[in-house]
Design brief:
Elements: H1 2-19, H2 27-56, H3 61-82, H4 91-111, H5 124-142, H6 150-169, H7 174-191, H8 195-215, H9 217-231, H10 238-250, H11 275-308, H12 312-336, H13 355-372
Length: 405
């Protein structure tokens, strides 16, 4: 009887896996997210209490706003984690979200708001990043056989991404537009587009980027300062020079949490763009490396989720979301260290902000949902690679499960 019961349980478990349902989220991903959020709360208070007192007469006003955004973001994360992500594959959902996002971008453009709504607290360009990833995952997973064809695959892709990127550039928000383009090209690569088409897409993107940068005086100034900083750090942008000063002051172990001097004086926007410099000053090289490791583990879990899920939509969605979060981290830290030209990307889960925090948590919630569902029993190890390095045989870089749902 015991053996029979065990056999029945095994059969039920097997059937559950075939149906695609698992019972647990990726707890390592959840743990990394929670640790970064708690650390973010500490850094937000450390970098805003003085500003909050000067602007609002209380040290806790900005922290309270951040906590409200955090609660809203956690609600979005939990909702998305409990939702079967495959429902997002319904074309009408992606199309509706895409149209809504484009409408908001156009609205912001015409009403003259500076990149956002509600006094700049909510930036549609942040939502556009997430919606673009979702839309492209739906579109590419349904068009995989046509992605190697220029007119049926690459041309529509370029038009879709070009419309969103142009509207974001006109806000103006060049760094957000660049993020959308890079993530879109990454997803195109993961979907298995021909190398020659990928090279063409990159060439067009670089050409458009060059024209946009030369059209905006701010872009020209940032590139000039970046190139000067590569030759001599003392000739780089003022922002980067102050960030380097903060890191030098922090040394190996830092001056102590909450004891940064730079955030009160020379360091610009310490609660958003420069928060990693404050981390370097207060917690030193050791604290900075710990934060980097936390992000590396978080992104590593995202890659594993993309590897393990068995449908192309889930792979593209998980790959796009992970690439987006990784790019935000790399750009923010790279700018502060003077490795990349100046951009306004926030440090995910740590920087003070509304839309960035909420949208990032929503994306992580979708990743957790993907981690809870498998479409079929996992195949052998060979088919688990998210990228097929044998690109010369023109095969897709995402393994197919051989079925469509």
């Amino acid at each position: 009887m015991i053996a029979s019961g065990t056999s029945d349980n095994a059969v039920k478990a097997q059937q559950g896996r075939i149906k695609g349902r698992t019972t647990q989220v990726d707890w390592i991903l959840a743990m990394m997210t929670a640790i970064l959020l708690v650390f973010g709360i500490m850094m937000v208070f450390s970098t805003t209490f003085d500003l909050s007192y000067n602007w609002h007469g209380s040290r806790f006003v900005m922290l309270n706003k951040h906590l409200w955004h955090l609660l809203f973001g956690i609600a979005a994360l939990v909702s998305c984690a409990l939702l079967d992500y495959r429902h997002l594959r319904i074309p009408i959902v992606a199309i509706g979200m895409g149209i809504s996002t484009i409408t908001v971008l156009v609205l912001v453009l015409f009403i003259g708001a500076d990149r956002g709504l509600v006094a700049g607290s909510y930036q549609p360009s942040e939502l556009a990043k997430l919606v673009t990833i979702l839309y492209l995952a739906v579109w590419m997973s349904s068009k995989q056989d046509k992605l190697k064809d220029f007119w049926n695959g690459i041309a529509p892709f370029a038009i879709l991404v070009g419309i969103v990127a142009t509207l974001i550039i006109l806000q103006p928000d060049i760094s957000a537009a660049a993020t959308v383009i890079v993530i879109a090209v990454l997803m195109l690569f993961l979907a298995g587009a021909a190398i020659v088409h990928l090279a063409g897409a990159l060439l067009i993107a670089l050409s458009v980027g060059y024209l946009v940068i030369n059209f905006y005086p701010t872009g020209q100034q940032r590139i000039a300062e970046y190139m000067a900083g590569l030759r001599d750090i003392t000739e780089g942008s003022w922002h980067v020079r102050q960030a380097i000063v903060a890191f030098v002051d922090g040394g190996i172990f830092g001056v102590g949490l909450g004891k940064s001097a730079g955030k009160f004086s020379y360091l610009p926007v310490p609660h958003t763009d420069s928060v990693f410099a404050v981390i370097g000053e207060e917690l030193g090289l050791i604290g900075s490396l710990i934060v980097v490791v936390l992000f590396v583990v978080l992104c590593w879990r995202g890659v594993l989720i993309a590897v393990r899920v068995q449908d192309s939509f889930g792979k593209l969605l998980a790959g796009g979301l992970t690439g987006w979060i990784a790019m935000e981290v790399i750009v923010n830290i790279g700018v502060i260290l003077g490795v990349l030209p100046f951009a306004g990307n926030a440090l995910p889960l740590i920087s003070y902000g509304g839309s960035s925090l909420v949208v990032t948590l929503t994306g992580i919630g979708i990743l957790m949902s993907i981690s809870r569902y498998d479409l079929e029993i996992r195949p052998d190890r060979e088919s688990r690679a998210i990228i097929d390095l044998r690109w010369w045989n023109r095969r897709a870089r995402l393994p197919s499960n051989g079925s469509r749902r």
